[in-house]
Design a protein that fits this description.
With 391 residues, the protein is mainly alpha-helical. It has 2 domains: 40 residues, no CATH class; 247 residues, Rhopdopsin 7-helix transmembrane proteins (Up-down Bundle). Helix content is 67%, strand content 5%. It has a two-stranded antiparallel ribbon. It has a two-stranded antiparallel ribbon with strand order 2-3. α10 packs antiparallel against α11. Receptor for ghrelin, coupled to G-alpha-11 proteins. Stimulates growth hormone secretion. Also binds other growth hormone releasing peptides (GHRP) (e.g. Met-enkephalin and GHRP-6) as well as non-peptide, low molecular weight secretagogues (e.g.
């Protein structure tokens, strides 16, 4: 490749010394004092500053909130319900997602050269992919459990136990790990002209040519993944992992809402059933908001992934610009999704607020218990009151 410097002190190759050329090209590729027209940075500095500050705030809120969720569920016995086990698993997933934020931000600011090696490039994207699968699977399993508990409470009493839920959560994580495995082939450290080529450029100055070594390494989708169709296949798998569960969630919550609405209109239900249904409505309302926030935050992420899988180096500048900014927005929403759940729990669950206050020493009394499933239908039933089914 041939490059012509565009600096005030080096306006053409004839006016440049080899030192100036090498310094310029190093800056050009490695991210400092770059030509604004040919800059390797995908976004303007003000945009990057805004994104970085936003992500930093999300990081602080998300890590604090999810750690608090794990502590609340693990420390207080009456918070260890089957529903909360799923929410705790989702909190672990969200924490792992936040571990992937620093390298993501690094790539926004300086996506080449990638200085952390091929293994780390693959690993952090594998963790991110695995956690996205785990979150959606946990939400789906939790919603199906709520459907059983509300629509078929006696059957749920026999089927849904803490031991089985823990085993199911472990299985869901195993499925997520296996499904994200192809990421180790999908991404890697590539160079400007491909994985097998060198990373040098040839420049001309004062009528002669000279080869200068420039580090063009970049953590991105491999050329093999693009040419073999693996990228398109993984985009399809990712879409299935999102849209199929969303369809299932829509059906499940529609059935739950229909069942609760029909029972609410019945005049001959007892006081215990009325109290149970009121608690179930509170639980379903909270979980429905969590699901809605999840879909709202992750839909742009999957649309952006679809755009990326169907774009190419020969795409028009406008298409490339749209894809880049869709990627930027989806990145912020991706981390917002990982940070927002504890906020929703705190906003919508009095019991969670009470347990969190006690955790920080702001309240001496135990979290409100209410009437639990063990006093009505046995300890393993998850269907009766908010105290036993939700935060």
């Amino acid at each position: 490749m041939r490059f012509r410097p565009n600096r005030t002190d080096c306006l053409s190759p004839i006016n440049c010394s080899w030192g100036e050329l090498e310094h310029y090209l190093t800056d050009y590729f490695n991210g400092s004092d770059r030509d604004p027209v040919h800059s390797e940075s995908l976004f303007p500095i003000p945009v990057l500053m805004g994104i970085t500050i936003t992500c930093a705030l999300l990081f602080l809120a998300g890590v604090t909130g999810n750690v608090m969720t794990i502590l609340v569920v693990s420390k207080y016995r009456d918070m260890r319900t089957t529903t909360n086990l799923y929410l705790c698993s989702m909190a672990v997933s969200d924490l792992l997602i936040f571990l992937c934020m620093p390298p993501d931000l690094y790539r926004l600011w300086k996506y080449r050269p990638w200085r952390f090696g091929d293994t780390f490039c693959k690993l952090f994207q594998f963790v991110s992919e695995c956690c996205t699968y785990s979150t959606i699977l946990n939400i789906t399993a939790l919603s199906v459990e709520r459907y059983l508990a509300i629509c078929f409470p006696l059957r749920a009493k026999r089927l849904v136990t803490k031991r089985r839920v823990r085993a199911l959560i472990l299985f869901l994580w195993l499925v997520s790990l296996l499904s994200a495995g192809p990421v180790f082939i999908l991404v890697g450290v590539e160079h400007e002209t491909g994985p097998a080529a060198g990373n040098s450029v040839t420049v001309s100055a004062v009528g002669t040519e000279r080869e200068i070594e420039i580090d063009t390494s970049e953590c991105k989708t491999t050329q093999y993944a693009v040419e073999s169709g693996l990228l398109a296949a993984m985009a399809l798998v990712s879409s299935v992992f999102f849209f199929l569960p969303v369809f299932c969630l829509t059906v499940v919550y529609s059935l739950i809402g229909r069942r609760l609405w029909k029972r609410r209109r019945e005049n001959n239900i007892g006081a215990n059933v009325a109290h149970r249904d009121k608690s179930n409505r509170q639980t379903v309302k909270m979980l429905a908001v969590v699901v809605f926030a999840f879909v709202l935050c992750w839909l742009p992420f999957h649309l952006q992934r679809y755009l990326m899988s169907h774009s190419s180096e020969g795409s028009s500048p406008i298409w490339s610009l749209i894809t880049q900014y869709c990627s930027l927005v989806s990145t912020v929403l991706f981390y917002l999704s990982a940070a927002i759940n504890p906020v929703l729990y705190n906003t919508m669950s009095r019991k969670y607020r009470s347990a969190a206050a006690q955790l920080f020493g702001l309240q001496e009394t135990q979290p409100p218990r209410g009437r639990t499933a063990s006093t009505v239908k046995g300890e393993s039933s998850p269907a009766w009151t908010e105290s036993t089914v939700s935060l």
